[in-house]
Amino acid sequence: MFCNSDNTHDMPTSSTPNPLAADPAFLEKIAAKIGTPFWLYDAGAVRRAIADVKFLTAEPGLQARYAMKASPATHILKEIFKAGIWIDAVSGNEALRAMRAGFPGGNEPPVILYTADVFRDNWWEVIRNHHILPNIGSPGQLNDLKKAGYRGAIALRINPGFGHGHVNACDTGGPSSKHGIWFQDALETAQVAEKLGYPVILIHAHVGSGPQQEELRANLKRLAEAFARIAPKFPHLQAVSLGGGLPHNYKGGAPIDLKALAIILKEAHEHLTQAVGHPVRLEIEPGRYFVAGSCQLVTRVTDVKKTRDNEKGQGSTFAMVDAGFVDLVRPAMYGSYHKISIPAREGQPTQPVVVAGPLCESGDVFTRDAGEFLAPRDLPLPQAGDLLVLHDAGAYGYSMSSNYNSIGRAPQIWLEQDGSTKLISRRETVDDLLKAEVEETI
To answer: What pTM was computed for the model?
Structure first.
């Protein structure tokens, strides 16, 4: 089940987004049943992204993982599992969630990889009981493994000295990044690991894509070349991971050039195999790409109000909605852009509008720029009662939502291509929020 023998070398066939996701009557029908806000996933979009990644890893010896931190919903994990894609987990509970969705434990092969900068909570129980391969990002973690009595293989996450994510706040590589073991210390760390009885069977880095496809391809080539130079010095090496970083263009634009990327991966695999002198598995681990474009957050406009600057003679128009950064935190956290639409007002004249949420925080605004300043969006003027849609919210949307202000997380809806819908997580209640609270003497 976990090989790529079922892949084809044909480009995936694209299909259009489900039109129901933009249909005001359809959205109102769901809202009438479960209230707002709610998350709506387009099953077809998830499967198209899966097909894209399967195309990239169609060559023998290539394997994709899903960085499940992007969206760990069990329903999505089951789609990933059916496609033969493996998992990159970054906590013990993520590994356990993957196993509950059907992914096997064990490290022969390591279908679930546990990548950690710091071990915490139930990490040892997960590694010990389920034999999940630990991918360490700091030399000191060798001591953690030794103290715990670990026996077995490990992986090393390496900071190659370059790379960054889609925004400056997401520093995935280089001297200012917290991730990974500095490349000049990697071989020494591997030697220490070897003496402790921890053969390094996988080396890994994540340099991110940056905002441009050209940067992604250049970073992957540079990383593959760097790994080809050091890979022969790891005597037990079975696999090399080039990390994730497949971009999703939140502002639209040309789709990713899958053919060009597939060529880079094929050449990198051949180069690494030749350098090591025996077959090695080449891995990639997208997260965002699988789910970013598949999901939208649907919220209700509760009021439209204006402020005035009496000195400058201007102000702002605020559309107040019932979703906030408790639901989608990315705009408040680092000014991320999400397309906004008001389906019932489509085609009407636009004007600058600030979209703001219900939380007791001035930063609870969806229309902010990377400098955290208000960035009004040209939108049709909504009316109280309209549904407003925040698009491309599938990656780090629900997974980063919280219970701030004691608000329950919004429900998730799965929209099939035939128009049928399924509730895949309900709206949280106050009982859900309080269930972990205890009064016990320790």
So the answer is: 0.92
